[in-house]
Specification:
Layout (H helix, E strand, L loop, with lengths): L2 E6 L10 E5 L9 H10 L1 H7 L10 E5 L7 E5 L10 H18 L4 E4 L11 H15 L8 E6 L2 H12 L4 E2 L2
Parallel strand pairs: 1-6, 1-7, 2-4, 2-5, 5-6
Antiparallel strand pairs: 3-4
The structure holds ligand AR6.
The site of ligand AR6 has 23 residues, from helix 1.
């Protein structure tokens, strides 16, 4: 049964997870926020590898190796820009569904997500939390390899909003 945990922390410092998810830009290049932390910790080899995988569209997920990160893989997702890429809830849900599908294809056991689209892309965190948890819950019965999903929130207030969404869901929390 899938275990979901919600923590406050840095997505680039999750050494016990097989993959971390990047809140990427379409070109899969280093940026601010999550993309800055992941590319900074992975080193320039990540951007080099990503050139062949880009560009990606909102909702899409592609996988690379983790380079100098403690994780075997990075799964890069392009979230919707809130109010621009529509329907934003379906596109944001696609990020979580497609990232989990890619993790399954690679037989990964554990995946850590940041709150995709809730920084530069402006998605309200409470709405993003509901979409993320619904998408993970919908995928849960189909997951054979992925046993652990961790949601890594930068602030305590964001962590609480995700925790509230998880409590309202059918998912099993490890807290
Ligand atoms: N660990 C975990 N969460 C973080 C971290 C971190 N190290 N840093 C920021 N957050 P964002 P987006 C939170 O902007 O909205 C980039 O420039 C942050 O507080 O990283 O999908 C890319 O290049 C927020 O709640 O991603 C794209 O152009 C959440 O992670 C664009 O921004 C996502 O913030 C993507 O925007």
């Amino acid at each position: 049964m899938l275990k979901v945990e919600i923590v406050q922390g840095n997505i680039a410092s999750q050494p016990d997870m097989d993959a971390v998810v990047n809140a990427a830009n379409a070109r899969l290049m280093p940026g601010s926020g999550v993309a800055g932390a992941i590319h900074g910790a992975a080193g320039p080899g990540l951007a080099e590898e990503c050139q062949a995988l880009a560009p990606i569209s909102p909702g899409e997920a592609v996988i690379s190796s983790g380079h100098r990160l403690p994780n075997r893989h990075v799964i890069h997702c392009l979230g919707p820009v809130y109010g621009v890429d529509e329907p934003s809830d379906r596109l944001l849900g696609d990020c979580y569904r497609n990232a989990l599908a890619v993790a399954e294809q690679h037989r990964l056991n554990s995946v850590a997500f940041p709150a995709i689209s809730t920084g530069v892309f402006g998605y309200p965190v409470d709405k993003a939390a509901a979409v993320a948890i619904d998408a993970i819950a919908a995928m849960a019965p189909a997951l054979r390899f992925v046993q652990r999903v961790r949601l890594v929130l930068f602030s305590d207030s964001d962590r609480r909003l995700f925790q509230a969404a998880l409590s309202r869901s059918s998912l099993t929390s490890t807290d």
